[in-house]
Amino acid sequence: MDYDRPSRRAFLLASSAMAFVGAASPGLAAPAGRVVAEPVPARHVALKPSIFQQAQAANRAYLVSLSADRLLHNFHQGAGLSVKAPVYGGWEAQSIAGHTLGHYLTACALQVAGTGDPVLSDRLTYIVAELARVQAAHGDGYVGGTTRWGQSDAAGGKQVFEELRRGDIRASRFSLNDGWVPIYTWHKVHAGLLDAHRLAGTPRALAVAVGLAGYFATIVEGLSDAQVQQILITEHGGINEAYAETYALTGDERWLKVARRLRHKAVLDPIAEGRDELAGLHANTQIPKVIGLARLYEVGGDPAEARAARFFHQVVTENHSYVIGGNSDREHFGKPNEIARHMAETTCEACNTYNMLKLTRRLWSWAPNGALFDYYERAQLNHIMAHQRPSDGMFVYFMPMAAGGRRSYSTPEDSFWCCVGSGMESHAKHADSIWWRGGDTLYLNLFLPSRLDLPDGDFAIDLDTRYPAEGLVRLSVVRAPSAEREIALRLPAWCAAPLVKVNGAAIGRPGRDGYARLKRRWKAGDRIELVLPMHLRAEPTPDDPNLVAFVSGPLVLAADLGPAERPFERAAPALLGDGPPATLLRKASSAPHVYAADLAAGGTATFSPFFAQYDRRTAVYAPVFTRARWASEGQGFLAAERARIDAVARTVDTVYLGEQQPEVDHKVTAGNSEIIQLNGRSGRKLGPGGWLEMTLARRPGPLGLQLIHWGQDAGQAAKVLVDGAPAGVFETPTETRDGFFAVDLPLPPGAGPARVRLEAGEKAVMIYEARVMAG
Length: 775
Known about the structure:
Elements: H1 8-15, H2 26-29, E1 38-39, E2 45-47, H3 51-65, H4 68-71, H5 73-78, H6 99-115, H7 118-138, H8 155-165, E3 175-176, E4 179-180, H9 182-200, H10 205-221, H11 225-231, H12 239-250, H13 253-261, H14 265-272, H15 283-300, H16 303-319, H17 350-366, H18 370-387, E5 388-389, E6 394-395, H19 418-426, E7 435-438, E8 441-444, E9 450-453, E10 460-465, E11 472-479, E12 485-490, E13 499-502, E14 505-506, E15 515-520, E16 527-531, E17 536-541, E18 544-552, E19 555-563, E20 575-576, E21 586-587, E22 595-598, E23 604-609, E24 616-619, E25 621-625, H20 627-650, E26 651-656, H21 660-665, E27 669-678, E28 681-696, E29 703-710, E30 717-722, E31 725-731, E32 740-747, E33 754-760, E34 765-767, E35 769-774
Parallel strand pairs: 8-12, 20-25
Antiparallel strand pairs: 1-7, 2-9, 3-4, 5-6, 7-8, 9-10, 10-11, 11-16, 12-15, 13-14, 13-16, 17-18, 18-19, 18-25, 19-23, 19-24, 21-22, 22-23, 26-35, 27-28, 28-33, 28-34, 29-32, 29-35, 30-31, 30-33
Helix pairs in contact: 6-7, 6-9, 6-19, 7-10, 8-10, 9-10, 9-12, 12-13, 12-15, 15-16, 15-17, 16-17, 17-18
């Protein structure tokens, strides 16, 4: 197909006039006094050979391999048009179908923005043209691919929106009128179209986006504020950001009004008031809402929105994050400064970190401060670079912090999780945050091998480094503007003694806000060297000083516990020594960032950069014992580890109630029931007469059913049925206790999965988890 695509040279020339404008409407995109620095567009930054270029190349190959017509299947079907290819599997074959197309539009736009990629530019043009056909067939602006639970007909997705228009609203955290987060999916398509226009100049993308915005706006505008808030109970992505961005691109005040109406007050008001009430909330449901607040501040100017965004970023990064920069366990925030008890296979959802980095960029653009990019670098190097396996471009949903954890990768055609979508975006944008510009200052924030080539006789600079393997960063000025200019180099806070040299002469440590600021009249041939000595340090968890992670320079280390395909059936590696924890590791190789440590139970462990252990089992955190404490507590530790290993081996299935993916996977249905967030986690409350059903796996041999409750919820009772037959009664003790406890019931044997039903009596019942246990 030939869509009269411009050449890369024409694309670069046509866009050079907008080199430092983030959107098509400069006055709205970067209001004076709000956004003071902007990223140098990726089209002026070319990656050199490195792990980042390798990741981008693997990602680009995956983007090219995907079929546009398969991603468009549900959009065509829902509009009554002939489908051109079968739908993909995984999430794309479920009610959330269509979200991947939105991510795909953004990922392709990012790739085109950086390289002018002709193949993906054509792909964008084709997809947008097809979406325009879909929109024309609907005749009212609708462009969607979602369905209802258990249905394959995409026409059901539009019925959800039309029911909302009539005020028929049935919302829970992840289900809206029997659709799986339909507004979340709507946001992905809306944002993808805006990015196709803004980043890649794709014909008709803005027109389709405005039509799409108008369809949903007519629904919102026809409802009361209370009804809108009811809709916003269900995860809805960054729909407020999409409308704020639509306003920035068009100047139409209507979109700003809609964006402000889409403020989820139950979550955002406490944040705006400086209260951390995140415990138990689904993490990635909340982060995009705050990104939306940040964008609203930029285009609307309410300083309260900026304060809320800053507060949220601070509490998440300081009080809810693991050492790799990720957050959440089983997709949910825990209590502040409580992560030691959340070392699991299900920590650090990738989407959360992707969105925290988006928020970080916005906050930095208001007030450049090196500390923000210290966080950005940590998360990018240690989570995002671990999230994609560069050999095949596949992605990880959760990044396990549990000892012995392994990464579970997506498949090319049968996954399409949210983290696949955000992964496609993450690895198309490695060049977009290296260099920034504010006034007459050029900021270097990330140390990625690259070539900066600004238009109109401005700077051209080569950046050469083996960072993060080594700490030497070399800048060579190839071309310089005639006027005096400032170059600001980020000095990472982890480095105690950075050294800056200009043309071989050391200049000490000048600057402020985490930057060495070098102001002079630059000329071709000037050389800058940034030397960042890398040393080992230990970072304990905030709630257990004896559970420690190790960081070498910018890189988080992890113990290598063997190949991923082998089960991990031994105790977590515990370290022994009486000195500071960092002294327990010793250099073990001439290779950078490789250390060894003696284990308390005997033997040694090798620690190396976590991100690169793609197909290994690892331990990021290690318990540390003094010799005296090991003598008194060592046998107890080993006994607890044996009990943990036994429990893992006996666990046949687990469903975490009130959590999106576990409930979807276990076909949870309920009546007179609500999702709760209490005691630092999610669960289900069955009202009087309420019921809940779930499908649980079985295997041959004796089985038990464990139902987990909070100890303060005393005197609860519910009938338990398995495949329609009575199986016992879930009863909690009459006395209250602190903590979570299990009620054990026999589970009748069977050849296949069991459909388990709980029925509450005259009193409400709260339950958090169900497990099938062998033996």
